[in-house]
Amino acid sequence: MNLKLASVGAAVFAALVFSACCCKATNGSDVLASKNLPFDMPVVSRPTIPDRSVCITEYGAVPDGYTLCTQAFADAIDALAKQGGGRVIVPSGVWFTGPIVLKDNIELHLEQSALIFFSADKSLYPLTQITFEGLNTWRCQSPLSAIGAKNIAVTGQGVIDGNGAAWRAVKKDKLTAREWDNLVKSGGLVSDDGRIWYPSESFKLGATSGSDQNVSTWAKTREDFEPMRDFLRPVMVAIHHCENVLLEGVTFQNSPCWNIHPAMCTNLIVKDITVRCPDYAQNGDGIDIESCKNVIVTGSSFDVGDDGICIKSGKDKAGRDRGIPCENIVVDDCIVFHGHGGFVVGSEMSGGVKNVNVTNCVFSGTDVGLRFKSTRGRGGVVENIYIDNIAMCNIAQEALLFDLFYGGKSASEAFAAGEDAEPTDLALKPVDETTPAFRDIHISNVWCRGARRAMYFNGLPEMNVERVTVENARVYAQTGAQINESTSVLLRNVTVVPEKGPALMVNNVKDLMVENFTCPEGMECALTVTGSRNRNVQIGSARITPENALLSKGAAKAVTIGK
Question: Which of 177, 202, 244, 336 has its CA 20 to 30 A from that of 359?
Answer without folding.
Answer: 244
